[in-house]
Model the fold of this input.
Amino acid sequence: MNKHAKKDDEIYNVGNYVVAYINLIGKREQIAELKKLPKSKNEKIEYIKSIIWVRGVLSGLDTFPDDFVNGEEEIEEDNPEAEVIRNIKNSISCPIRKQRLPDGLMLFVPLYDERKRVSAIEKIYNLLLLCASINLLSFVANCPIRGGIEIGIGCELYKNELYGPVIKDAYDLESKIAQYPRIVVGGKLEDYINRYGDYEISTIDNSYTQKCTELFRKDPDRHKILHYLGKCFRRETEGKIENKYFKEAFTFVKIKHHKYTYDGDNELAERYHRLLKYFERFMRSGI
Done:
């Protein structure tokens, strides 16, 4: 029996959640290639190496939110992102829930709060800031991600196990719209944030609402994305994410664009060209 399962007489919480569906680019395809049962000793060794490598990347992504949110987990010295995590691990105080996926991670927050300790807009802001940070730092770690983030109905049947249509909505943004390393913001979430400011809210919540909108940017294809090179993100992570990580991310994008162009991979070259234009504009202007 699942120790986290609810008892028969418990009431399940059904309500609005904001979900970020994050995919490690290329890992879905890499896992799909591991279909053939290895026969020789060498094939078995290579198979295990592939599994261990994918698992290692997923583990790094899986533990990152814990280090970012509360710093409770001890950081291993051989973790290549250890220095980055140390700089930002105490940035957020609002709990963010996580659910591991075969090729990525799902981060989510419930918007209901029976104790009314944290407002819905503060939860959304914290999740947006965390996802934007992962987006930027994934380039530094040489493991680019793409994702989708949306609001909708969900239900936790078990601890940190979310079910409901909101997952599909976030997944559709990741798998059908994002296409390259960026996190696309759903229209329903944008509308929710815009409407939130129409109500009589506290000065603090009004500030969170403003910062949420400043973390968005309209891409050339007219989809809203998390703006990790913008003024708001830089201001909110100042002292936590050093300037060198922005430069390292920029270098990664330039190298990938050159590689795919040289290899004649027109599709990936075009996608990284869009990303390169984003970096060129905001790394030079600083806005």
The first helix runs from residue 27 to 32.
